[in-house]
Amino acid sequence: MTTGAPDMTEQPFSLLRNLAQTGNDTHEHGDDSLSFINAMEKLNIHSVFDIVRRSKSAFVHELSRISDADAALAYENARCYATQIVRLYRNQLLSSGRPQSVTRRTGVRSLVDIGPSFPNLFKENWDLFCKVGAIEAKDSPVAYLTSLYRFALEQLEGSVAEDSRIKLHDRRPDLKGLLIDQQSTFTPVPTLHIVNQVLSKAINAYVDTVPEDKGKSIYQLVAEKQHPFQFPYNFHFQQISLGLAGKKPMLGELNYCVSLELPTTSRYGSDYGKVQHSSAIAQVLMSGAGPEQQAIVIEPALSSLANADTSADLTRQFFKTKYNVDYVDDASNPLNNLNVFLEKTGLDSDGVEALLAIGNHTAYASPNIRSAGNTADEDSPLDASLTAIKARFGAGYVNGPTNQPAMALNKDAYGTERLVNTSVDRFDRLQRMIRLQRWTGIPFTALDTLVMAVIRSEGAVNLQMVLTVNTLRALGTYRYLNKRYGLAPDEFAAFVHLMPGEANDGRLPMFDRVFNNPALFDTPLVLDGSILDLDQDSSQHVKTRAQLSRALQLSSTHEGLRQLAVDVRELIGNAPTDFRLNLSMISSLYRQARIASMFGLTAAECRALIDLLGTLSFRKKVVSGQLDDTEPDVLDILMQLDWAVTWLKASDRDIAALRRQLGWDITETIVTQELTVQLEQLTNDARQAVLKRDQLASLDLPSKDDQNNTIDWWTILHYYLIDGLGLVTTQPLHEEPAVSIRRTLHERLSSIAIAEPLASEVEARLETFVLNGYRSQHRLVEGLLLTLTGLPPDRCEPVIRWAGSDAGKFLGALLWDDGAIQKVSTLIRYSEVSQQLGLSARALRTFLISPRWLHADFGFLLPLSMNSLYLLDRYRNWRDNCGYPEETLLDYFKQANDTHRDNTQCAARLASLTGWTSSEVLAANALLTGSDRIASSMHEVDWLSRMHSASDVTGLSARQLLSATDLTATSTASHWKSAGEAVIAANR
């Protein structure tokens, strides 16, 4: 024999031969029957142990197929021999004579003989034992796996021959070549890793046989595959999605976190959410659809691509790619068979009924919506509304815009259930809808409601009812609001179109759920198209207004229901109209009230905040809810409101107070008796504090110069230092008053011929005269503001200057009685802002002198606006949390705005002030400034701070963050790969 195994026919003694004799091996064999010895050779059995390793049934079955020997008796004899051999072997192992070191005793005990014990009586050979946990132990994982491996090979695969059986060496050809050692035995390996490894080898082997797929990676293959509906699968997109799950900002949300502009700082309403790309890209990314999935959702419909020559080929290719079926024509389409459709889509029968809104999921309309044009089919007359509802609600998108009857299920003559009223376009819509439902997890009815709301909101630009980028934008915005506020799909649908007046699955229609449940009035609210008078006191109008107010949790006052209803009446169309009880206007009311409650605001507060963000144009977009290509639309406004509410809560601000401080809601200052007395006293004090010509006589100034020319000292001071009322003129903020007054005096006196030292004495006397007047006049205003607002005196001058005035102008208004009350109101408003911000005199003075240090778009004057207020608030937050004195922060701005700055030093200094590293600051600045210039304004520093916060939350570096925000559906595979690997690495 060539195998090296012992030849049983040449051995003088063989247990197998004895088994053969015992097994009656002496009879004659048939043509196809082997002797016992030959059968053992064929079965690769060389000892009794090879026999007993098999089960008795397996051995009997194998032997009986090739030999007539008594297999059962041979097996029992083999087991007896094996038992005896094992017992003899164990007996010979005992009493090795080698003493155990563990039994030796020391000290006094070593003087006494050890009595009989198991180790003494049975001196086992410990060299044949192994350590606990060793891989060669009979209870180790290796022994267990070896036993399993033998069991699979010898008993499972060797039992009954089946042609369809896939054996282990076909499933896992790598097993027999795996190395068993300490590392491979005890190193944990995730099951998913093993599965991926095995599948990858099998897939690669298959791919090599397909010419068009040869050379492609597995990731590329699963990303390109579109059937089954679990595909396409973008591995790196899934890495990012899982890595940014939980409380971390998801893909797209990151763009809003590190947006270059915020709603307060943006020049254009849609800049919020823009980093490298527009906010629309960020909203699409928030939908949770990968790049290949996005392409499937919004790819052009088949009907728009095909022509007479290519229609048949494109249709066949479509069905093969999307459903993996062979298509010939509509009549013989295999997908019309329900069982085939279920198999190809992975749905069950209930899922198909939900998809088509039939059977147990058939829709029904609210009985309380009776006006034409306010049913599920907005273009159908009232008598056709029920048919329209059954055809469209819950399945509006999949049925499409055609007049063809809605899809349904019928049984043919053979009792086979089939889909009827289908078409190529409808199968295209079905596969998109099924995929969307799988990806979003939204039930079919709710998803169709949301999708159809978007389609109808687009209006005339989408008469073909196709899925567009707006669909993905809406899904992304919905997912974000659902994650943060628990918003339901039908509620979000009402944000962009009408609230549903229909329902299925035993639920109340949304209209009745909001306005007629629970029933608090004797009759329900009915939409019949009648006019609702907002001021009439008739019982019916009062009752209807009460029903609306109660349902929307509004007060039937000017600030509540009436104000919202007026907005609807004035802004919902192209021209003002009457407020009617129809679904369009009622949905607009609901939209405004629900948006407010979602953000935790009253309706009046939400309306006021929308005004602050975008004035009348924003309010009109919210009232109408229409989506269009002119940004921003209602989706952008929702994201901006989310940011604004978050900031207001974080900074503990009140919307009403904010509008008052910004001058949006001007409230007249109540002129109390106390204020009147204060202003009268201040006016009298101002008259005493003005500088007069005759006061110069006490200065003992020379009347003539050295050339004997008469000197008019008042003329020299007038206009340049003292105005016509005797009030000292405004002094520049960047200098101390004494310095600027001295400089101006020196310039004015330089043309007068007076020799030293008299010239210096005259200049000093005049400086003291003017400076004393300046100080006494300013003390008057400082005292007033301290009394009225508690503003510290050192902040008085910068606050007055911020308000566009100064002490001289204010006192002049008092002396002339020219709008003093209005100026007091303005000063009080600016004082409140300054105190709420907690700005120091130096900081406020610095930003008044250099407004561009707050924002590059600010001119020479610092405005009081949402933008400046936000940036000053962020400066205060930075000052309070950076751990450095305020002088260090202001010095940084000075250094960063110096034309001769050293960018490396600026980066190092900013890194220490923000708690980041220089390399990260430089990496982020590359996008921020487009050059090596370091952030030089609070606007830019705030962006870096938000980048730093996002980096801390996600674990990504600045470059990795910017790489993630740069992703789009058209980004390269390598870009997605690098971003996915970075996110996964950040989670380890």
What characterizes the major β-sheet?
2 strands, antiparallel
Secondary structure tally, helices: 47
Structural class: mainly alpha
Strand order, sheet with most strands: 1-4
Task: Name the average pLDDT.
Answer: 88
Count the beta strands.
4
Strand content: under 5%
Judging from the principal axes of the Cα atoms, what is the shape? extended
- What low-confidence regions span 5 or more consecutive residues with pLDDT below 50? 1-6, 22-28, 372-391
Task: Kindly list the characteristics that best describe this protein.
988 residues; mainly alpha; two-stranded antiparallel ribbon; two-stranded antiparallel sheet; 4 strands
Could you walk me through the main structural features you see in this protein, from its secondary elements to its overall organization?
It is a single chain. With 988 residues, the protein is mainly α. Among the domains are: 15-93; 220-293, no CATH class; 310-465, no CATH class; 518-653, no CATH class; 663-855, no CATH class. The chain is built from 47 helices and four strands. The strands form two sheets. It has a two-stranded antiparallel sheet. A two-stranded antiparallel ribbon has the order 2-3. Strand 2 and strand 3 form a beta hairpin. Mean pLDDT is 88; it is low at 1-6, 22-28 and 372-391.
Summarize, please.
The chain is mainly alpha-helical and 988 residues long.
Topology:
Blueprint (H helix, E strand, L loop, with lengths): L14 H8 L13 H7 L5 H5 L3 H11 L4 H23 L24 H4 L19 H16 L11 H4 L10 H5 L4 H17 L10 H7 L10 H9 L9 H5 L21 H7 L5 H8 L3 H4 L5 H12 L15 H8 L3 H8 L7 E2 L19 H8 L3 H4 L8 E4 L5 E4 L3 H17 L3 H15 L10 H17 L3 H8 L5 E2 L6 H6 L23 H14 L8 H11 L11 H16 L4 H22 L9 H17 L4 H7 L11 H17 L23 H5 L19 H13 L8 H32 L6 H7 L4 H10 L3 H18 L3 H9 L16 H16 L4 H11 L6 H12 L3 H12 L8 H17 L3 H8 L7 H14 L2
Antiparallel strand pairs: 1-4, 2-3
